[in-house]
Amino acid sequence: MTVGGEGVGDTVFYSEFATQRIMKLDNAATTTAATDDESSSTTPPEPIPITPEGDRYRFADAIYDNTNTPRLLLVREDHINPAPKDVVNEIAAVAVDGT
Predict the structure, then answer these.
(1) Where are the domains of the chain?
(2) Predicted confidence (pLDDT) at residue 39 exceeds the cutoff of 80
(3) Can you give the pTM of this predicted structure?
(4) Could you give the strand order of the β-sheet that contains 88-95, starting from the edge strand earlier in sequence?
(5) First CA to last CA distance, the chain
(6) Is 78 exposed, middle or buried (0-12, 13-18, 19+ CB in 10 A)?
(7) What is the pLDDT of residue 5?
(8) How many CA atoms lie within 13 A of 80 on its CB side?
(9) Is 69 helix (H, G, I), strand (E, B) or coil?
């Protein structure tokens, strides 16, 4: 991922350090609401996790692929056996809608 994220239009995908989950941040989802004084207030979008909870997997080096179904192709580190010599790196695909 470039600078922690892979961008697609108004959407950025990134690996959140604290949870190691891939997050989807859709800037097009920013909402603007009028306030009482007739000015507007912008609410930033909330990131949406697209990978499961847990500390088994870590993700890196994602690229966006829209060949058939929009997805991220990335390196997935499997830490089911956390000793560094036992960590397995795999190429994986993650659907950008979280399925």
Answers:
(1) 5-30+40-95
(2) no
(3) 0.74
(4) 57-65, 71-78, 88-95
(5) 20
(6) middle
(7) 56
(8) 4
(9) coil
